[in-house]
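Structure catalogue
Derive tokens from sequence
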Amino acid sequence: MPERTILALGGNAFASPQQPLTMAGQFKFAHAALRSLHPLLGDGRDLVITHGNGPQVGHMLIRVEQSLGTAYAIPLEVCVAESEGELGYVIEQTLRNVLVELGRRRPIAGLMTEVVVDADDPAFEHPTKPVGPYYTIEQAAELRDKGFQVSEDVGRAPGELKRLRRVVPSPKPLEIIDVRIIETLLQSGAIVIAAGGGGIPVVREDGQLRGVEAVVDKDLTSSLLGRAIDARLMIILTNVPCAYRNFGTRKQSPIERIDIHTAQQLLDEGHFAEGSMRPKIEAAIQFSGRPNCRTIICNVETLERSGAGEAGTLIEYAAPEGE
């Protein structure tokens, strides 16, 4: 049987940096991304699709801020839940249509997913996760005056300049509440859409769950989920064709095939940006730290060739040093 697979779609897979974010545009981009998955859709493999929500949740925050005094306020974790529902709908409907186009049938199940984080995670004091649109220097100054944190976000494509975006806390995921349900759905033959936007962040207090204002990184959650259900392949789809050494500099060079030890060395050397490629590499190291497991980082255009080892970045298991 083909290996159980986690496919992590970036939130930017549903938007173009050159065009305004719209619902019609999200369906268009989703179709292009999911149509490229045809090698994964026809072999009967267990498949879980996760997705980011950075652009979408940022726009939701703008709506919340602009409607204060007119509509009730919505905290950040509820915006995450709403984006999980929005993009889950986009993916589920589009995937059904793509399967029809390919002449295939499979049940699809979208699941709202809660993810436990630590209330004392240092990320709450040091926000790094970029969300929403890019801002000019003047707009960023206005946001800072209102008490929001804004930071430079490394360009999402080679050679792109740094641009300003709002940043929010991104605590590490510790536990996925709905793992048993996801496992049951997979065993039924369904393609599962889960942990959207990294999942809805919650903390445990006296045996109860409570939402917290944060956005969990979807790649770290995907890695955690993949390990919990014993997936063997994780594919992280982003909008660059691979990971790079010295990204955004004159020394930039593509990373093709490395093991987890080399990946950790490059991480320690600072080759990957916070809130962008860094959590992808961290997620890959965690996921691929088990025998016979590997992670592919690529974009839609190179997905099929990456699966054949001809493109993208492959990060694979290596035995602990000294063994």
User: Anything to note?
Assistant: The longest helix spans residues 76-101. The longest strand covers residues 129-135.
